[in-house]
Amino acid sequence: MKRRDFITKAATGVAGAGAIAAGCSSPDSGDQVPSVQTKKNVTWRLASSFSRSLDTIYGAAEVLAERVSALTGGRFRIRAYPGGELVPALEVLGAVQTGTVQMGHSASYYYDGKNPAFAFDTCVPFGLTARMLNGWFYYGGGLDLTRELFADFNIINFPGGNTGVQMGGWFRREINSLDDLKGLTMRIPGLGGKVMDRLGVNVQLISGGEIFPALERGAIDATEWAGPYDDEKLGFHKIVQNYYYPGWWEPGPGLSFYVNRNAWDTLPTDYQEALTSAAAEANVGMMAKYDAQNPPALQRLLAEGVSLRPFARDILEAARSESFNILEDFAAADAQYRKIFDSFVEFRRAAYRWMGTAELAFQDFAFRSAT
Ligand code: CA
């Protein structure tokens, strides 16, 4: 199958449960795969960047594996391994690239050192929400563009879940203005950290397991992680109670599945179809799981005495301004980055206009008046 055909098929077979289920009847299924080929037994290993305790994020790899097995009558099996078990958690992309494992599940912005444009496969500050990201990937040209990036790494990427708009994190003291951020020590990775650095924050990069003790002994004044369901497990509310929102640096971070290109090419077409559909199911399923689990988690946190606090407007405005400056600098330095950036910005402009109309008006009225 030509690569372009694959991309088109993948991009059109994945919106909503009906389209996912229809994956097996997409045009290329007319390839007439010999029956002996469909009975081939295949076993793959998938390296995740995430720990098993993060059941929503890590769980997407298990959903994918279960669905692939079910769709192939148990003949194509994928075994998922948590971060660190096969390869270091933040080296999943390299492990898939070299074929150490056939598949990975990770967040592409971990690899922005290899190519800064990988950030667009996850999120950038003041970027797209989960819904918008899926729109851009599946029907707005985004997946074609990110696949051009991953092709250089011998990888085919599939959207693999989203957390939705994240929370801004946990702060020891109240942050009422831009001045209150200056000199603050905060754990925040990636582009959000770069922006915070420009706003005067002393940015710390520490892994998930090290955050709680650092917060407890006062080595950091603040930390971000994800949202109520995941944050509750890490227990930050037992130390600090100011829970800020929104996490403007992660308005809809997308996770991704990576498939080694050579491994992909050895798969029978119907196994490729099964994997494509399973990835799409895992992608939309993660957001649904968060949408079911974050609301009660937030209620539990509030019952524990947590205070919800919005970031001050001057903080949001300064952060947005610095975010755009940083992205413009990257775009000015690299033509490939510019190509993706331009598509992203154009999509965002139209999406914000549309989502800022009926969606926002309804949410602003109905959500605020909810009891
Ligand atoms: Ca985060």
Q: What does this protein look like?
A:
The protein is 51% helix and 14% strand. Mean pLDDT is 91; it is low at 1-30. The chain is an alpha/beta fold. Helix 7 packs across helix 8 (142-151). The protein has a six-stranded mixed sheet with strand order 7-6-8-5-9-11, covered by helices on one side. It has a five-stranded mixed sheet with strand order 2-1-3-10-4, sandwiched between helices. It has a domain at 6-164 and 251-292: Bacterial extracellular solute-binding protein, family 7 (D-Maltodextrin-Binding Protein, domain 2, 3-Layer(aba) Sandwich), CATH 3.40.190. Strand 6, helix 10 (190-198) and strand 7 (202-204) form a beta-alpha-beta unit. Bound molecules: calcium ion. The site of calcium ion has 6 residues, from loops.
